[in-house]
Specification:
By secondary structure, the protein is of the alpha+beta class. The protein has three domains: about 60 residues, Nucleic acid-binding proteins (OB fold (Dihydrolipoamide Acetyltransferase, E2P)), CATH 2.40.50; about 60 residues, 5' to 3' exonuclease, C-terminal subdomain (DNA polymerase, domain 1), CATH 1.10.150.20; about 55 residues, Helicase, Ruva Protein, domain 3 (Orthogonal Bundle). Helices cover about 45% and strands about 20% of the residues. Strands 1-2-3-5-4 form a five-stranded mixed beta barrel. A hairpin with a 3-residue loop joins strand 1 and strand 2. Helix 2 crosses helix 3 and helix 8 packs across helix 9. It starts with a strand and ends with a helix. It is found in: Cytoplasm.
């Protein structure tokens, strides 16, 4: 198994990052949150999970070990494959996911593309005793910052994913009403990506 990858970011797409490791470009499938932290030409270390299928070998990259562990755990639930698991960690933070399962919050789980009412109930039933309780804020540095700095962070994330500065400006303006007093950067980035995909 490949536990983590460290190397220079060679390329970024909407769904993946290519890290150069020992002269080899390794493509990692990543969530928008993870991609927003990467810059082409910069070095990065990402925890990874390798999924082997008959016809493919896919490596998923994560923001931190907590996200990776949740990704691997949710796949133990019936009907949850790597794509749905990745969608879960893209839409919900590990703690949001733990809180939803512990609180039997079907509505929150069905916000994830690919999970319906029955699927959410099955996930709750199968994971409730194993997923654990929310652990609180992960890192002080990841707490949303007050004021307007969120605009720069979301803008940089979109440009890093390949959108033009002009497109990023429009998307940031489109989600400005959702920012509130304490902006949730990952949520705003996801909302901005949705507006761009609709455009």
């Amino acid at each position: 198994m490949i536990a983590f990858v460290r190397g220079e970011v060679a390329a970024l797409t909407l769904t993946s990052a290519v890290l150069e490791v020992g002269g080899i470009g390794l493509e990692l499938m990543c969530t928008p949150n993870t991609l927003a932290t990467l810059r082409v030409g910069a070095n990065a270390t990402l925890p990874t999970s390798m999924v082997v299928r008959e016809d493919s070998l896919t490596v998923f990259g994560f923001l931190d070990d907590d996200e990776k562990q949740v990704f691997e755990l949710v796949q133990t639930a019936s009907g949850v494959g790597p794509k749905v698991a990745q969608a879960m960690v893209a839409v919900l933070s590990p703690d949001d996911l733990r809180a939803a399962v512990a609180g039997e919050d079907v509505k929150t789980l069905t916000r994830v593309p690919g999970i319906g009412q029955k699927g959410a109930q099955r996930i709750i039933l199968e994971l409730k005793d194993r997923i654990g309780a929310p652990t609180g804020p992960r890192l002080a540095g990841q707490a949303p910052r007050p004021g307007q700095p969120w605009r720069d962070q979301v803008h940089q994330g979109l440009v890093g994913l390949g959108w033009s500065a002009k497109e990023a400006d429009k998307a940031v303006d489109a989600v400005a009403d959702e920012a509130g007093a304490t902006p949730d950067i990952p949520a705003l980035l996801r909302a901005a990506l949705r507006t761009l995909s609709r455009a």
